[in-house]
Amino acid sequence: MCGIVGVVSHAPVNQLIYDALLLLQHRGQDAAGIVTQLERKFFMHKAKGMVRDVFRTRNMRALPGNSGLGQVRYPTAGNAYSEEEAQPFYVNAPFGMVLVHNGNLTNAQALKAELFNEDHRHINTESDSEVLLNVLAHELEKTTRGLTLTSADVFEAVRRVHRRIKGSYAVVSMIAGHGLLAFRDPFGIRPLCLGRSKDGTYMVASESVALEGTGHLFERDIAPGEAVFIDVNGQAHFMQCANAPHLHPCIFEFVYLARPDSTMDGISVYQARLNLGETLAKRVISTVPPNEIDVVIPIPESSRPSATQLAHLLGLPYREGFVKNRYVGRTFIMPGQGVRKKSVRQKLNVITSEFKGRNVLLVDDSIVRGTTSREIVQMARDAGARKVYMASAAPPVRFPNVYGIDMPTPEELVAHNRSIEEVRELIGCDALIYQDVEGMRQAVQKARLGNGFAIDGFEASCFDGCYITGDVSASDIARLNSKRVSQQEGDEDNSRLALPNASE
Question: Is 2 an annotated catalytic residue?
Answer without folding.
Answer: yes
